[in-house]
UniProtKB/TrEMBL annotation:
Subcellular location: Cell membrane; Membrane
Gene Ontology annotations for the cellular component aspect, listed alphabetically: plasma membrane
Compositionally skewed regions (Basic and acidic residues) per UniProt: 361-371
Name of this protein: XK-related protein
Protein source organism: Maylandia zebra (zebra mbuna)
Length: 382
């Protein structure tokens, strides 16, 4: 068992966060299956085919990232469980879309071992693995599935799917923020109230974005694809100009920038240092986009009135107002609760050629160089 009661409580808390991540992940899969079955029963075969295509594309994207990270780490396995499959078997797991499930199972086993005191080193290993899993889940949540799977069912009046997915994303972002704060000094770690504000502003902004896209898709479903492609091209160019440096080879970095464009279509996150001005420009762009989408929906509703919505202008104004409210909550969070630190004040260090990795050194959660890069961007002063 860990050496002190505080360490045991910390480990238990991490285990609970892991269980929440796993439950949200499985719930999301269950809701996606339910949405696919509903579309099939409604004989909406075009939407059903698109849904399957986007789900498969999202899964493949996550597996590619997982495989690339194994390759970047020279396939150095951290535990005996991870060493069980050979490199060829590990590749097959990713080909059959099972690589991330192996990681989820492995992470849970490591934390379970810590709680029952059989391996003290498993705690650090579990935290290290959880960092990568949360990045992968982040990509999965905001990839193709996060945009189209949310808007298409809502356009077909599947409100339950939209509400469940919105809560799932906001909850996951909160656990993601908790994970990044592993790299902060103890005195900089936040209290529960900051978690609440972080959850609220993400929930409000995401809800407004989903509502605007869904309203537009409900009256002009064919144009939602054109809107996505045009917006993604703008956001991809924006990501390229941000000079990201997340992956370890040029092709991987272009893949990452492509993914960033998909994520930004839905929600903002920092991908490089000095992103504050870009963040303001991004939110201004999304706010204008929401106004245009809601305006087109109002115009369509006025030319073809519906009994379901009697005051379209009021509805559209509420969607825009909700986004503005979310921006207000975000400003409050960044003003009073968000730590702004220099790179050298974060815990952990990226392994460099001048500082070679010691094979015998115990693995730490802060050794995860991918999450550290994201934490540097998230907590950067500039």
């Amino acid at each position: 068992m860990p050496g002190s009661e505080d360490e045991f409580k910390c480990c238990t808390q991490d285990f609970l966060f892991t269980c929440v991540d796993l439950l949200l992940f499985l719930l999301d899969i269950g809701v996606d299956i339910w949405a696919a079955v509903s579309l099939y029963k409604q004989e909406a075969y075009v939407y059903f085919s698109l849904l399957l295509l986007f789900l498969l594309g999202s899964s493949m994207l996550v597996q590619v990232y997982s495989w690339l990270w194994y390759r970047y780490d020279d396939f150095k396995m951290k535990t005996k469980i991870e060493k069980k499959p050979s490199q060829c078997q590990l590749k097959l797991l990713h080909v059959f879309q099972l690589g991330i499930f192996f990681g989820l199972f492995h992470d849970d086993i490591c934390v379970f071992i810590v709680l029952y005191g059989k391996d003290a080193d498993a705690e650090s290993v579990a935290k290290f693995l959880r960092q990568d899993l949360r990045i992968l889940h982040f990509i999965e949540m905001f990839s193709v599935k996060s945009t189209f799977v949310l808007t298409l069912p809502l356009a077909l009046s599947s409100v339950l799917k939209a509400i469940g997915s919105t809560l799932s994303i906001a909850s996951f972002l909160t656990t993601y923020d908790h994970s990044m704060r592993t790299f902060l000094p103890e005195k900089e770690k936040h209290h529960m109230i900051s978690l609440v504000f972080y959850f609220i502003w993400n929930l409000v902004l995401i809800s407004s974005r989903i509502a605007a896209l869904a309203l537009f898709a409900s009256v002009l479903p064919c144009f939602i694809f054109a809107h996505f492609i045009c917006s993604w091209l703008v956001l991809f160019f924006f990501a390229w100009r941000s000079k990201t440096n997340f992956m370890e080879d040029p092709r991987g970095e272009w893949l990452y920038r492509t993914t960033v464009g998909l994520i930004w279509y839905f929600n903002w996150f920092s991908v490089a240092k000095g992103m504050r001005i870009r963040s303001v420009l991004y939110h201004a762009y999304i706010l204008i986009d929401i106004c245009i989408l809601c305006g087109l929906w109002c115009w369509k509703m006025s030319t073809d009135p519906s009994d379901f919505v009697t005051h379209p202008l009021t509805t559209a104004a509420c969607v825009v107002a909700v986004y503005v409210l979310g921006l207000l909550f975000k400003v409050i969070y960044y003003t009073f609760f968000h730590p702004n630190l220099d790179k050298d004040k974060l815990k952990g260090a990226t392994i460099t050629e001048e500082q070679p990795e010691e094979e015998e050194r115990p693995l730490k959660a802060t050794d995860n160089k991918r999450m550290r890069k994201l934490a540097e961007n998230f907590f950067s002063r500039t």
